């Protein structure tokens, strides 16, 4: 098979990636170059969950506003998205949102309970529950579109990364009704009621795909799909019960991706057995957690060509968040090690191997960015 | 290197494994034969967490008694251990206890909070905290010894499996002070304060080792070390910061193990990258979670000989607990598939790939045992 990507992405000429204006175009940014396997102006770095609880300015701004409310007030979501860029000089903003936001926008009763996570009023347990899920429309993403527009206007040539949960991780919350360790509910349903599972996953795939598309069309220059719980599955279950729907989500933006279009990062934790499948959903960049060395990730991808003939791809990751609270010399040595391990890949954007822990000292993150930018590229 | 096991285990002649009395000896039991890679009277099966919340007789007996109290009342711990054997006809009892029991017996303030898990009065965060840990003695295991004796007297030729948490998983609870998803505390400490980590892990290794030894000397015919959180580590971190202490724990019973002695099962979840290391701690059987196929586990072990020259070993596992609440035909097909996948290993004891979920219908477990025993062996 030949290259599956479209060569001329269907992005509007006013999109930051398409602009012919050095001050506003994101095409030459360190991040986009890194995602495209090119060496840009500096070594790119950003942090998953860089916007949020580790920042005092975030905690202050959020006072009196619930988590999901803050995602849906465009000015606030935009400001929160921008805070870590100002503070840390990271090479990208990641849109501040939550994986259950598409559910909320569709009218499903869901809240983020502090210290718990997303809790649904009514978990989805049966085919009947799935059939009652609301229809998804593009209109519902209006507050998202507005927040993205406000954000990219501020960011100039620094790219915004669009954010969405992958269908399995979203479905896991919907079936359990809350966070769980073992995800037994969705893992039972996929075998026990394959038709209900198919309809639920088709719905979450559409929700994730439309959510990403709305952000890109409003100005996001890259996108990342988060499949936090993919590592709870066997390879066979991932391949047959999850991967088709992740592809389906990505199909909503496939006319926008490709070598000159939107880079798409696909991230999960505990994915060492399914790295090639993560790539073969249509991702252009594989995000890796802290458990597996990047040189080993690169080797495995090289040895398992996909149906489109692709082998290695640019990687993103994988500084261990546990080391953010270690002494500086321990952390610095680790960051240098991650850079060395990523050198074999055809592109490497530095990030954590999981989200910023809420207790992280933000000055440490700033120092990590400075270190990464100071290292010869 | 040649066989590391002692050939004549230092078990008392009155130990159930050493008895020359068909009605009381466990040596010819299906479980011990399976663990030794021999085909016994029937296909052996037991379930992790078979004793406990899934059984109404357990919930009734425990009424008004806290979890840790129930572990330390010998008659109650013994009765709880025996309940699933009577009900399900499983091929082994697993000693009913908790991984924090050695801490409790040593005088550390710890309770199991319902719906949360183990919570310590004072988490262990520094070298000073570690230095204040109490001394471990054999006397402290008296209630355990008594409970095991009561249990094996009832079990006759059916073996009791001794139970202990592995040093890392125990240390993770001690440092966090409670269950956590990412185990950031212990994972920071191992890099940031290696001396404190060494002393903490040496302490937990001694606690786990003595705990197992007490159970074996009182009559347990096999032992299982549970390293539930081992999968949260990179291979390098496991190998350098955890494995030496798991070996140290096992060294407390190495004179009791070996081809004619106590089989030692070593189990963890998410261990696909460290299967050989799990084996090379000195385990005779590798317990596998539901994520990786047993034929693939066997292949990986075959390809990575240990320093003692061993390659494949008998396996235990790995029915997906999520399928216990599926329709019977789905579950039956899965059980048959697990049996087929385990056929290549030099021994296979059926089990779940993780503990029995508390909501499991116990009649399903009984039916799974009947199915496994009915399949040609």
Describe this structure in words.
2 copies of one chain form a homodimer. In chain A, the strands form 2 sheets. Chain A has a 7-stranded parallel β-sheet with strand order 1-4-5-6-7-8-9. A two-stranded antiparallel sheet of chain A has the order 2-3. Chain A is built from 15 helices and 9 strands. In chain A, β8 (315-319), α14 and β9 (348-352) form a beta-alpha-beta unit. The two termini of chain A are 34 Å apart. With 377 residues, chain A is α/β, with parallel strands linked by helices. The relative contact order of chain A is 0.15. Chain A has one domain (30-374): TIM Barrel. The first copy, chain A, is globular. Helices cover 43% and strands 11% of the residues of chain A. Chain A binds chain B through residues 181-184, 187-188, 191-192, 231-236, 270, 272-273, 290-293, 320-323, 325-327, 330, 334, 354, 357, and chain B through 181-184, 187-188, 191-192, 231-236, 270, 272-273, 290-293, 320-323, 325-327, 330, 334, 354, 357.
Question: What's the shape of chain A?
Answer: globular
Chain pair with largest interface: A-B, 32 and 32 residues
**Percent range for helical residues of chain A?**
40-55%
Taking the sheet with the most strands of chain A, its summary is: 7 strands, parallel
Query: Helix count of chain A?
Result: 15
Strand order of the largest sheet of chain A: 1-4-5-6-7-8-9
Instruction: Please tally the β strands of chain A and state the result.
Output: 9
Write the CATH architecture name of chain A.
Answer: Alpha-Beta Barrel
Q: What structural category characterises the helix and strand content of chain A?
A: alpha/beta
Radius of gyration of chain A: 19 Å
- The figure for the number of domains of chain A is 1
Q: Into which percentage range does the β-strand content of chain A fall?
A: 5-15%
Mean pLDDT of chain A: 96
The CATH class designation of chain A is Alpha Beta
Termini of chain A, distance in Å?
Answer: 34 Å
| CATH topological fold name of chain A | TIM Barrel
Characterize the quaternary organization of these chains: homodimer
Uncertain ranges of chain A: 1-6
Spell the H/E element sequence of chain A: HHHHEHEEHHEHHHEHEHEHEHEH
